[in-house]
Amino acid sequence: MRLLIHKTYDDACAWAARCIAERINERSRGRPFVLGLPTGSSPLGIYRELVALYQKGAVSFANTITFNMDEYVGLEPEHPQSYHRFMADTFFNHIDIDRRHTHLLDGMASDLEAECASYEAAIAQAGGIDLFLGGMGADGHLAFNEPGSSLHSRTRIKTLTQGTRIANARFFGGDPEAVPLTALTVGVGTVMDAREVLIIVNGYHKARALAAVVEGGLNHMWTLSCLQTHPRAIIVCDEEAADELRLRTVRYFKDIERAALGTAAE
Fold first, then answer.
1. pLDDT in tens, 238-260
2. pLDDT at 263 > cutoff 70
3. Where are the domains of the chain?
4. Is 244 a catalytic residue?
5. CA gyration radius, the chain
6. Which of these is catalytic: 6, 84, 141, 220?
7. Is residue 141 flagged as an active site residue?
């Protein structure tokens, strides 16, 4: 696992966006680049940076296929708080991606279990996820894989904790009861199947969870700790999120990055 600590959230987002653009540009021709995407407030800065890179001509999404992490059950795609709407307004409407190549779970499907199974099949048919971008909740969750989720789980229906509903209430007029009780989400195993995973973490309110994920053991109560077993996992964070890490941990990861930069410059 790599841990990159940047001074600010904006700095972390700029680095993450450049990383994603580089991966896409490496696959400019041939098989499409398959990108997993999150929603929520964590990736907003990354989407802004990616749109800016596209507008500068630094990256094209014409040869990219996307799969989103999750969607609320019971919200129409055009609902203001659906993740279909979020992705369109925040990202897809501002880049050159073929909308036929964007995949999101259907929270209105008549058979939700079949929807989850077909989503896993679609990912496999696309050749698997090349890079899965994600965020981390304040309790260490990934997508809607709440604490206690199986680290081998696949795309499925998930009941949301009251803590998650309270956290997301800011998008629903401040009312936790307005937040849907269930959602469809990719599983931890689905994310771990990606060839590379990149997670953005920001803010003091996530510092305790980040310390547990990085310095603690593999633990399903801290879902993102799954990254400890991934061969190509990167967590990029701001200094606020790193606030509860041990000093020696911070020094260790910063030393590794300095050494890597020095090697690359030789």
1. 999 999 999 999 999 999 988 77
2. no
3. 2-265
4. no
5. 18
6. 141
7. yes
